[in-house]
Amino acid sequence: MKISLLERLATWENFLCALTVGALTYATLAVPNFVTTFNLSQAIAGASERALIALPMTLLIIAREIDISVASVLALCSVVFGVAIRDGAPIQIAIVLAMLTGAAAGMINGILVTWLGLPSLVVTLGAMAMFRGIGYIILGSGSVNEFPDAFTDFGINTIGHTPLPWTIAPFLLLAPIFIVVLQRSSLGRRIYAIGANPDAARYAGVKVDKIRLSLFVVSGLICSIAGVVFTARLANARADNAVGLELDVITIALLGGVSVFGGRGKLTGVFVALILIASLRNVLGLSQIGGDAQGTVIGMLLIVSLLISATAERFYDALQSILVSRKTGDPSQGGRRNP
């Protein structure tokens, strides 16, 4: 019974929750202006794009893939949206063009990975430079910063009298859908099966390549939505938007308990990690620590999360071995034979 209780309590999600509560408590007590309505609203708004992109990134990593071109896709979609608005297109048409651009970018990544069998890390590394380069070709080093008032109001206003900005609304709408798909549907079970053992999943009849391709397309679509949100929040469309954002998103996913080797992870843990990273960036900002230094801290946190994740997996496997040996009474597995 004690071991069973230990198994239930000694989880990565519980540890992450405790760490997040501790960080929030410290920030509330020690960091001036942290708990003001304005600051909380700004912190949530600043996490809007990361929250959105963390959804498909989680599914990709669980499926043993990765997309490090997400920030470049966001920037390209922002450029396409901004140029369309500049040239007189209605907001609805500009959003559709941005989403089509994101879907096309995701399709290119997916085709290179699934049809040609190239590693997603290498493909999206090249795509990261390519998509941002296309943004520079379209817009150059300039920017578009004149948008309709309704659009800029979406970027700065809050929902009613709450500190929740409207920019977080797309995430709040999409997050439950992703949770149901990943943790309550047959498609989610297939994604876990692909990440655990792609060959076994293929032999079991899972359409591995089709699902992987779909995940990359979904990633591109979500990045396009994040691009529109980013543009609304800053009222600015540039080819260099969101530089380095992919580091935050990957850190959030891995810190949230998603295994870099695939097959493990839940969105609930990712959401807790999102709160922790958003709070950490906000506290660093309030402490007058610049973006480069913040990136260094996030990079260190990514390395630490990988080390802790690997150590936790070894500990979990060792604990499972001890439990099995105690049930079977096999002393060779570390347990003691029952008298």
Brief sketch in words of this structure:
With 339 residues, the protein is mainly alpha-helical. It has helices spanning 2-9, 12-30, 37-46, 48-62, 70-86, 91-114, 120-139, 149-156, 169-184, 186-196, 198-203, 208-234, 245-255, 267-286, 291-328.
Tell me about this structure:
The protein is mainly alpha-helical and 339 residues long. It has a single domain, classed as ABC transporter involved in vitamin B12 uptake, BtuC. It has 15 helices and no strands. The chain has helices at residues 2-9, 12-30, 37-46, 48-62, 70-86, 91-114, 120-139, 149-156, 169-184, 186-196, 198-203, 208-234, 245-255, 267-286, 291-328. The two termini are 20 Å apart. The model is unreliable at 332-339 (pLDDT under 50).
Write the layout of secondary structure elements.
Blueprint: H1 2-9, H2 12-30, H3 37-46, H4 48-62, H5 70-86, H6 91-114, H7 120-139, H8 149-156, H9 169-184, H10 186-196, H11 198-203, H12 208-234, H13 245-255, H14 267-286, H15 291-328
Helix pairs in contact: 2-14, 3-14, 4-9, 4-10, 4-12, 4-13, 4-14, 5-6, 5-7, 5-12, 6-7, 6-12, 8-12, 9-10, 13-14, 13-15
